[in-house]
Amino acid sequence: MGKKKFKTEVDQLLHLLIHSLYSHSEIFLRELISNSSDALDKLKYLTVADESYKNITFEPRVDIILDEENHKVLTLSDNGIGMNDKDLEESLGTIARSGTKNFLNQLSGDEVKDSNLIGQFGVGFYSVFMVADKVEVLTRKAGEEKGWSWTSDGKSGYTLVEKEKESHGTTVILHLNEKGSEYDNRWQLEQITKKYSNHIAFPIFLHYESKSFEGEGDDKKEIKEDKVEQINSASALWKRSKSELKDEDYNEFYKTITGDSEEPMFKLHTRAEGTNEYTTLFYVPKKAPMDMFYADYKPGVKLYVRRVFITDDEKELLPTYLRFMKGVIDSEDLPLNVSREILQQNKVMSNIKTASVKKILSELKKFSGDAEKYKEFIDQYNRPLKEGVYSDFANKDDLLELVRYKSTKVEGWTSLAECKDRMQVDQKGIYFITGDNESMLRNSPLLEAYKSKDIEVLIMDDEIDEIVAPMISTYKEIELKAINKSGAMDDLKTEDDEKKETEIKPLLEKIKTALGDAVKDVVASSRLHDSPSCIVVDENDPTAQMQQMLRQMGQTEMPEVKPILEINPDHDIVKKMDGSSDEDLIKDASQLLFDQAMMVEGMDLKDPAEFAKRLNRVMSKAL
Ligand code: ADP
């Protein structure tokens, strides 16, 4: 096999990677060690779960070798699963991982300069080309005879040839470049390994040459000695008892498993005994994972069975809405050869999942007691929690305690519980308004009556509220009511309102005739104060924003939903209309009342030119 070209995207990635991560070149070591650790996990798993690997005995380890004779060579070796020619081509000749692709997408923005973001991506093997101008990967797959050598300068493609290798596993030989020469240093390697890989489950050994002197004066001799030292702690931290672990230990472990350079916002270490025995260690990152809203997000929780790594690619370990959680689940009861299919139907797994969710939610509830910290949490994770309200019926009540909303009554975030406490004695529900623009919502004429009666309204300006809020239906037996729907108004109606309604009935009919089938109905409003008109949708119709969203989601066949126009009987314009006999003017005014109500809700006018003409006619009559 001769020289091969990289798939085009690799060329592109390499270039960007090398240039944008230059000041973080040390992460190449983290990436290599993490690949080795994965390879060791995989083989260890096969030797316990797969008959054909049972005869392989091995002590999993990673070796980092400093070549004292030839200072430009650094070697990293593992006795893991290894690769054959096909694996090499697939893994190192193309970009297999979505994380790398996401990273590539991000590179176009300025954000990549933020080192914390960099930490979130597994940038992978290619990072070696920041520190080396030539790299050889010598590898043999466990259970196979042939070894393979893959070589590349990271620029012009790679060569792949058969080459003998004594035992299974992978050895990566880096010919360090100028930048890389700073890693030709024992202390540096030790420090970086501790920083990123201290809690990798396998021992990492550093091979170096120690020099000392013996004798005095002319007899003084330099003694060189080859030394091997384990440089990481290699313990399954989650298995240690809480009392012997310090915050630093937890934080450091978090950094090891996530690559995040910041400390976590929240941690939760649980050991369960009884019917099911398991340990969980969960973290919430300070910043939401970059891929949280990608469909192909990388799950953050690793599954172990009796300390043996099983998978880090199982999205079902926690419900989707908790996909921002990082950490470890280690079960004592699951079989080691648990397959994905089994996992998803397994009783033990489902018990662990159910209990973990309960525990996470109840701990978050406690965490919410610290308003300042909880605000940081909400700023990042309010939205996935709202997804939970929608999707996790069993935990809906707990989730309703955790989500937060904006409000007409308080600054910042408020909870449904607080909102309930602030309710007026005769208040019939918790009111909310949905839409995508906070300031537009705050200025909506729909709020006027609530403001004048000093009733709180929740301002829901997150896209997802449109779907989730109507689902809530009740909080502690109190109804949640959308004020941009027709029904909520009835709560505010007084006898006086009803009287006025009858009085302007004839005008309403006129307006209705003028607007034709642009509206579903024209009614007298009891919720308007300063504005002459507003639009709402029928109790059973989707709101205008909801329709817009459904359309964006590809739902094109929707029955047209017509708004209801509400008219404020107390408004000067309306009173004057009622007293006027100029039928043309009433027609124009009707249309203008409708158009302005649409605009205030952020809708587009069907015919802006017609609107201007009409406005001009009315103005010239008025002046
Ligand atoms: P990632 O590890 O994030 O998938 P990398 O670019 O680091 O991406 O590696 C690509 C693939 O190459 C890995 O998924 C793995 O299949 C293979 N690989 C890399 N290093 C090793 C190794 N030391 N042993 C076995 N396979 C490896």
Quick structural overview:
This protein has 623 residues and is of the alpha+beta class.
CATH topology of the largest domain: Heat Shock Protein 90
Low-confidence stretches: 95-99, 110-120
Q: Calculate Rg over CA atoms.
A: 33 Å
The oligomeric state is single chain
The N- to C-terminal Cα distance equals: 89 Å
- Bound chemical compounds: adenosine-5'-diphosphate
How many distinct folded domains?
4
Q: What is the helix fraction of residues, given as a range?
A: 25-40%
Per CATH, the superfamily of the largest domain is: Histidine kinase-like ATPase, C-terminal domain
**Strand order across the largest sheet:** 1-6-5-4-7-3-2-8-9
CATH architecture of the largest domain: 2-Layer Sandwich
Question: How many strands?
Answer: 22
Mean pLDDT: 87
Count of alpha and pi helical runs: 20
Spatial shape:
elongated
What is the CATH top level name of the largest domain? Alpha Beta
Q: What summary fits the major beta sheet?
A: 9 strands, mixed
